[in-house]
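Readers of this paper often ask what the protein records in our data store actually look like. Nothing more is needed to write down the fold, since each code stands for a local backbone conformation. Below, we set out a record of this kind in full and without editing:
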Amino acid sequence: MTMTWEELGWERLAAGVGRCRLPGWDCTTGLVVGEGTALLIDAGSSLAEGARLRAEAQELAGHRVTHLALTHPHFDHVLGVAAFAGTEVYGAVGIDTVLGGRHAREELRADAVGNGLDAHLAEEAVDALVAPRHHVSGEWTLDLGGRQVLLANVGPGHSAHDLAVLVPGSPEVVFCGDLVEESGEPQAGSDAVPSQWPAALDRLLDLGGEDALYVPGHGAVVDAAFVRRQRDELAARFGVS
């Protein structure tokens, strides 16, 4: 008997669309179920977490995960990617410079350990890391067995390679990655591009509109008014319009 979204600890947002908040860093992973297909959005912070997400997504979808979209290349969103062998992986153009090069991978490992991930788990995940096969420049429409999902390269902002996922429907759902955070102040690390972050949020709002549900990388689901306030706060914080 298939378990429900709630029984597995996932929040159902619309028909065939949901998300879960992972322990540790309160990172969000999303799922969109199509006919014979399933898109997972972000892969968790370790191989074990990725394997758990894959198993739960398969339980909810009734079939394997066929697509994986990475919203940005930070450890808590990407280190589980190797658990999705055989899955078509998507990321913003340039994400392979972070996930593919030796120096960049060492920085990723150090960031994970510095933020509290066990060193062995971090090394294991980084060693197995696979860069996305598909690089999104502009917009890319995925056909998920009768339902279409839009991948949009809306960054840079929180990182140099920010990807949003728009799921049409009633309501529309926008997975924002860490361009939007609800459970704390948006984090701007060394790879953030503050001067363009407000513009990235403008593009998110253009994608989803006033009535969409906006799913932040960390925290509770928010509305367009919240995204607009955060956009204005970031513009003031970084001195941009």
